[in-house]
Structures are given as structure tokens and as C-alpha cells.
TrEMBL record:
<comment type="similarity">
    <text>Belongs to the glutaredoxin family. CC-type subfamily.</text>
</comment>
<dbReference type="GO" id="GO:0005737">
    <property type="term" value="C:cytoplasm"/>
</dbReference>
<keyword id="KW-0963">Cytoplasm</keyword>
<dbReference type="InterPro" id="IPR036249">
    <property type="entry name" value="Thioredoxin-like_sf"/>
</dbReference>
<keyword id="KW-0676">Redox-active center</keyword>
<protein>
    <submittedName>
        <fullName>Monothiol glutaredoxin-S5</fullName>
    </submittedName>
</protein>
<dbReference type="InterPro" id="IPR011905">
    <property type="entry name" value="GlrX-like_pln_2"/>
</dbReference>
Length: 128
């Protein structure tokens, strides 16, 4: 049987607390990290695309789907540089080699153009 995993909410505001340090640590320690809201189906899509390339990404869950933008602002603060042109931070977002690639649309564009595998190799996520 599955159990729900609790996450913290601020009692005063009701907003989900974003742990920017936890996300920054995961980005620093893992070659590929997917950051998204709990229960978002696009996180699953990103994971499957990356797993299809031979990469097992770490996943950081943030927020509860409120859509208040605090999570995206926190991610923008730890971007570590961009891969290409990314106008704004979207969730879910993927970090490769400590650099923010972008949301699902940017990940798909990089994959279709053939740039994803070289980026993964440069980050040390692929050894082929």
C-alpha cells in the first residue's frame, strides 16, 4: 500500500516552503537533476526522456502545485548559468552539469536538435 509523504507548509501563510539550499545541493552533487512540483506529470515525462538516453536523473520535488511562482524564483537564483537562451524559469526544470537547461519545451528542443547527448557527455552523465 502506498503512503502519502508529508511536506511542510508555513502555518501563517499556507505557502509551501521552498528549500533553495536543498535544490542547490542536489544540483551540485548530481550531473542531471529534474526539479518540479509534486504530482506533476511533466516531471515523469522529463525523467523518461532522460532515462531513454541512458541517464538516471535525480528528482527534487518542490511545492504542492499552488503555482505561486516562489519555486521558479528560487530555481532562477541557483541557475548556475544557462544552456542556450532561456527567457524565464519554468517548472519542471532540468539542470545538466549544474547549468539550467530549462523546462520541458527546452529539453525537447535540445533533444530533437541533437544537442542533448553532447551536453550530457560534457556533464559526465553519459560515458559512451
Amino acid at each position: 500500500m502506498q503512503q502519502a509523504i508529508a511536506y511542510s507548509r508555513s502555518a501563517a501563510t499556507g505557502k509551501v516552503e521552498v528549500d533553495e539550499d536543498r535544490i542547490a545541493k542536489a544540483v551540485a552533487e548530481n550531473p542531471v537533476v529534474v526539479v518540479g512540483r509534486r504530482g506533476c506529470c511533466m516531471v515523469h515525462v522529463m525523467r523518461r526522456l532522460l532515462q531513454g538516453q541512458g541517464v538516471n536523473p535525480a528528482v527534487c520535488d518542490v511545492g504542492g502545485g499552488d503555482g505561486d511562482g516562489d519555486e521558479a524564483a528560487a530555481i532562477g537564483g541557483i541557475s548556475g548559468g544557462w544552456v542556450g537562451e532561456v527567457p524565464e524559469v519554468q517548472l519542471p526544470a532540468v539542470f545538466i552539469g549544474g547549468r539550467l537547461v530549462g523546462g520541458i519545451d527546452r529539453l525537447m528542443a535540445v533533444h530533437i536538435s541533437g544537442e542533448l547527448v553532447p551536453i550530457l557527455k560534457d556533464a559526465g552523465a553519459l560515458w559512451l
